[in-house]
Amino acid sequence: MDIFEANILVMGNIIKKINLNHSFIFFLFSNIFSLVIFKFYNLNISSLICLLLILIIGVSHGSLDHEKGKKLFEILKIKEISIFYLSYVLIAISVIVIWTLLPSISLIIFLMVASYHFGKEDTQFLINKISFVNQLLFFFKGSLIILAPMFFNFEDTVFIFKFILVDNELFYLTLSFIETKNILPVFITLSTLASIYLIFEDFNFKKIIIFLDYISILILNYFLSPLVAFTIYFCFLHSVRHSITLIYEIDGQNLSNGIKKFIKKALPLTILTIILALIGLYLLNNNYDLHSSILKIIFIGLASLTFPHILLEYFLEKYEK
Question: Is the dihedral of CA 72, 77, 82, 84 positive or negative?
Fold first, then answer.
C-alpha cells in the first residue's frame, strides 16, 4: 500500500467515525425534537421555515458542483467550462418545464431517482464494494424517505403531491389502492431488509449508522408532518453528511480550515439559489397561496437541482476511476 492509498484509508476511517457520531447525535435530536413537537403540538412549524432551512442548509451540500464540474472537465480535457454551466442550467430548466407538462410522470421518476440518491449518498462511505446488488439495495434503503411519510401520514403526503401540480386521477387511484390493500408495509419491509443486509455485509461496528438513521427516519415521520420530517432529514442528516465528505476532500488534515474553505466555496451558489427561489416564490404567489407556492419551490426546485447534481456525481465517479 502506497502513501496515497494509506491517506485515503485513514481519511475514510475518520469520515466513518465522524458520521457515526453525527448519526448518534441526529438520532437523539430526532427523538427529543419529535417528542417536544408531539407533546406541544400547537407549536406549528411553518412551511416558510422549512423552505429557509432547505435553502440555507440543504442546498449548500450541492453548491460545490461548479468545483466538481471543473474537475470533471479537467479529466475530460475540455477547456470551455462555460459548456458545463450551460449544460447544468439547461438540465435544471428542462426538469421544471417537463414537470409542468407531465407532472405525474416527473414525480414518479423524481421519487425513484431520489430514493436511489438518498440511499447511496447516506450509505456508500460504509460499503467496500459497489456491485449491482448493492446499488439495488441503496434504492430500497433510500425509498424509506418516500415510503415513511406515505405510511404514517398518507393524506398529508397526497395533499403535497396535489400542491405540486400532480392532478392525474389514475395516479391517485393507484396510491389509494396501495394504501387500502396494505401494500405500503410490503415496500417498507423491503427497505428494512435492504438496510439489514447492508449492515451485516462485511459487518463492522460503524455500520450501526444505518440502523440509527433508519430509526430516526421512522421517528420523524411518525411524530411530524411529511414536510417537517423531510426538512429535518434533508438538512440535518443527508446534507450535513454529504458536506462532511466535501470538507474532508477540501482539507482532510485541518477540519477547521476545511469548514472555512467549504463555506467560502459554497456561499456564492447558495446565495444565488436563495435569490432565484425567492424570485420564484414571489412570482408563484401571484397565482397560488403562500403554502402552495412554497411546496412548489421546495419539491419542483429540488427536482430541478437533483437531476444535474446526480448526473455530475455519476460522470465524475465514472471518469475518476
Answer: negative
For residue range 16-34, list pLDDT tens digits in order.
888 888 999 999 999 888 8
Q: Which amino acid is at 238?
A: H
Cβ pair 196, 129 in contact under 8 A: no
AA identity, residue 232: I
Distances (CA, A) of 221 to 153, 217, 232, 299: 8, 6, 10, 17
**Residue-range domain boundaries for the chain:** 3-320
What single-letter amino acid sits at 234? F
| Calpha distance 61→110 (Å, rounded) | 19
CA 202 to CA 58: how far, in whole Å? Answer: 31
Give the burial string for 126-144 (b: 16+ CB within 10 Å, else e): bbeeeeeebeebbbbbbbb
**Long-range contacts for 238-243 (Cβ within 8 Å, ≥24 apart)?**
238/58, 238/61, 238/118, 238/121, 238/122, 239/57, 239/58, 239/59, 239/60, 239/61, 240/22, 240/57, 240/61, 241/19, 241/22, 241/121, 241/122, 242/61, 242/62, 242/121, 243/60, 243/61
Contact 189, 201 (CB under 8 A): no
Question: What would the pLDDT profile of 101-135 be if each residue is shown by its tens digit?
Answer: 999 999 999 999 999 999 999 998 888 777 889 99
The number of C-alpha atoms within 13 Å of 312 and in the hemisphere containing its C-beta is 24
Distances (CA, A) of 45 to 58, 184, 283: 17, 27, 23
Instruction: Decide: 60 and 238 in contact? Cβ < 8 Å.
Output: no
- DSSP state for residue 124 in the 8-state scheme: G
pTM attached to this predicted model: 0.91
